[in-house]
Amino acid sequence: MASLNVVVLNKKATMREYVERFSRADIEVPGAQDDFKCFIFERNLRDDCKFKEELGLQAAKHMNDLLTRAQPH
């Protein structure tokens, strides 16, 4: 779980780069629950990230749902 917790969306990274890094780290954590992975993904977004506001409108239930919604950003 610690490998997921260190993946954050920093000021210079795009959402695509963040999703790619999170997905790579996710592979290293077999058996992690989707709701917990969604929680970490959302928590590690920058506060000024517009996508963070969109996520707040509808909670993601699965990582695939979350990653699909992140694609356009």
* CA-atom Rg in angstroms: 11 Å
Beta-strand content: under 5%
Tell me the number of helical segments per DSSP (H or I, 4 or more residues long): 5
In total, how many beta strands? 0
Largest sheet: none
SS-based class: mainly alpha
Distance between the termini: 25 Å
Number of domains: 1
In words, what does this structure look like?
This protein is mainly α and 73 residues long. It has one domain (2-70). Helix content is 59%, strand content 0%. The protein is built from five helices and no strands. The longest helix has 13 residues, at 15-27. The chain is globular and about 30 Å long. The protein starts with a helix and ends with a helix. 11% of the residues are buried. The mean pLDDT is 75.
Descriptors for this entry?
single chain, about 70 residues, mainly alpha, 5 helices, about 0% strand
Q: What is the compact description of this entry?
A:
The chain is mainly α and 73 residues long. It is built from five helices and no strands.
Q: What's the layout of helices and strands?
A:
Layout: H1 2-5, H2 15-27, H3 34-43, H4 50-57, H5 63-70
